[in-house]
Structure formats: structure tokens, C-alpha cells
Amino acid sequence: MIPSNKGEFKIMRIIVLALLLTFSIAGAQPIPQDHQGPPQKGSQNYEAWLHQEVRHQLMLLPWYTVFDQLAYSISGYTVTLTGAVVNPTLKSDAQNAVKHIEGVEKVVNQIQLLPNGPMDNQIRRAEYRKIYSQPSLSRYGIGNLQSIHILVDNGHVTLTGYVDSEADKNVANIQANSVPNVFSVKNNLMVRNPGK
């Protein structure tokens, strides 16, 4: 049967779509679940999963910014948190996020609280503008969490994170040292591909 007008064509289209939907629902198979929880505790797969899960949970923290640095180490089922943060809430949020990971028995929180005074905050903003406004470094500022972190502790600046080349590391260092009122700059940036 060929529809003779637009109204009949719309009705035919609705009927065909309804039939297709009915067949697809009737023949649908359950979708296999890839994620069935963590691997068995104590296995090598569990250790790898735990490292990945801790990192994932830390990256999801809402107050984690370019002015903070979070790190961790795992020994058995104990996670030790290190680094430095400006917001005290971030320190406790990091601990709470990690302690709820399946299999973690203990969290040791050694995260340092950085001063949050007007002078250090001014240096943070100036460092951010100097570093991320450079054409060769601006790409590191793309995304939710920039790869060059700027830690300021009573006028002393530490750069942490990753860059792609030694040249980028040097440019970041020069820019960080050019900010007024900075007492010292420690460049702890790591180069992802040192041979390139």
C-alpha cells in the first residue's frame, strides 16, 4: 500500500517506527556489565586498580585547583596522602574520598596547608598570568586541571606537574622568576618525554 497524501504517510511512518521499536525491545539482550567491582584484594590486579582509583578520586575533588598539588603512596591497604593545598576543605575532602575506596583500611593524611594571605594570593594570580599567558605554555592550561601547578608558601614558589619538553620547563621557570615579590622559585616540573 502506497500512501496517497501526507496524512497517510505520517500514519504509516508512525506504524513502521512502532513495529521497529517493538521488535528491538523484544529481541534486546541484556548488556554485559564490564565493571563488577574491584579485583580480589591482595592480587596484582587489585594493586593496579587501587592506584588508578585513588588517582581518579583525587582528580574528581571539586576544590582541587592549579594552586594545589596532591600526591599519594600506597603500602598494602594504607594510603598516604601528601602534597600541599590552599583550601583546608580540600585536605579533608581528599582523605574522605580515599577512605571510602573499597579495600582501603587506613588513610594517613600528610597534606600540608599553604598560607592563604593576601600577599601569597597576589603572587598566585601573578604567577598564573605569567606562566599561562606564554604561547608555548598556554596549551597546559586547557582542560579542567592544568598540568603546571603553582604552589606559593610565604613568597616561595614551587612549580610541580608535567610539561612536554625541557624548553617548556625552562620557559616556565623564567616566567615564574619574573614575578615581583617572589623570594625563590623551585622548579619541580617533570618532562614527560625527556628524549624529545
How would you characterize the overall build of this protein?
This protein is an alpha/beta fold. It contains 5 helices and 8 strands. It has 2 domains: about 45-115, Histidine-containing Protein, Chain: A; about 120-190, Histidine-containing Protein, Chain: A. It is globular. The chain is about 40% helix and about 20% strand.
Throw out a few tags for this protein:
single chain; 196 residues; alpha/beta; Histidine-containing Protein, Chain: A; 2 domains; 4-stranded mixed β-sheet; 5 helices; 21% strand; globular
Explain briefly what this protein structure is:
This protein is of the alpha/beta class. It has helices at residues 6-26, 44-59, 88-99, 118-132, 166-177; strands at residues 69-75, 78-85, 106-109, 112-113, 148-153, 156-163, 184-187, 190-191. The chain has 2 domains: 44-113, Histidine-containing Protein, Chain: A; 118-191, Histidine-containing Protein, Chain: A (2-Layer Sandwich), CATH 3.30.1340.
In the CATH scheme, the class of the largest domain would be Alpha Beta
Low-confidence stretches are 23-34
Let me know the average pLDDT. Answer: 84
Second CATH tier, the architecture of the largest domain: 2-Layer Sandwich
Q: What is the fold-level CATH name, i.e. the topology of the largest domain?
A: Histidine-containing Protein, Chain: A
Distinct helical segment count: 5
Rg value: 26 Å
Q: Main sheet, how many strands, which sense, barrel? A: 4 strands, mixed
What's the number of extended β-strand segments? 8
Shape: globular
Number of domains: 2
